[in-house]
Amino acid sequence: MTTRNRAVRTAAxxxxxxxxxxxxxxxxxxxxxxxxxxxxRSERAVTALEEVSxxxxxxxxxxxxxxSGSGKSTILHAVAGLLVPTAGTVTVEGADLTAxxxxxxTRLRRERIGIVFQRFHLLPSLSARAxxxxxxxxxxxxxxxxxxxxxxLLERVGLDDRIGHLPGELSGGERQRVAIARALATDxxxxxxxxxxxxxxxxxxxxxxxxLTEIGRKRAMLVASHDAETLAVxxxxxxxxxxxxVSDGR
Length: 250
Ligand code: ADP
Ligand code: MG
Prior knowledge:
Elements (H helix, E strand, L loop, with lengths): L2 H10 L10 E10 L13 E11 L4 E5 L6 H8 L7 E6 L2 E2 L5 H11 E4 L11 H11 L4 H14 L15 H12 L6 E5 L7 H15 L4 E4 L3 H5 L3 E6 L2 E5 L2
Bound molecules: adenosine-5'-diphosphate (ADP) and magnesium ion.
């Protein structure tokens, strides 16, 4: 184990935090465009989140609702360690993501957080199995074990007859199930899902949702959606408006 790795593990297993509150955001504010990352000169800094505090308990599925632009994806990206907020802290299993180095944060994301996107984000040139196995390549798992684990996960999401198919040969619902299997590859503690049924028809979306909730109950899950059916299966819905929490239905 490297020193860096040990540092992450130690922070992540601080007594009293693990298990009780897998995810906690404290006074998180995020402004895009304040670090020179503006997409064009005409663009101004945008305050996407303002003093957001939010906690997710073990086994809890929390829905994030709010109109487009209210900050849902920004929260998910902060929890997934894909961005570091301008202010505030984000802890996942006791590790403060905002205090980690980029490498530590990337490592924590790869090992402990599963991410499901609206548009699947599968690599088109890789088979379903190779897509699912990809996080395990990054985690250094030997090839034989990767293949076994990916096959097991694809069976679990009902795709045992699609293992060798490319994403382009799969339906939207099948692609999302591959993406869910990929999110589970490293057996993460936390799942974040950004409008996971947004591209799917109602019946397919319902099946994907059943699968996600079954998985989320065993971990902790944060799911962004403006779909009533998705929000109905959550334990609690947090409502956002203009980057602020306006209700937290605990
Ligand atoms: P939602 O997921 O609820 O639609 P987002 O979190 O994507 O909301 O966006 C919140 C706000 O931040 C919006 O005003 C959006 O335009 C802005 N925003 C999102 N991503 C970026 C970015 N990369 N650069 C600048 N502004 C952004
Ligand atoms: Mg979004």
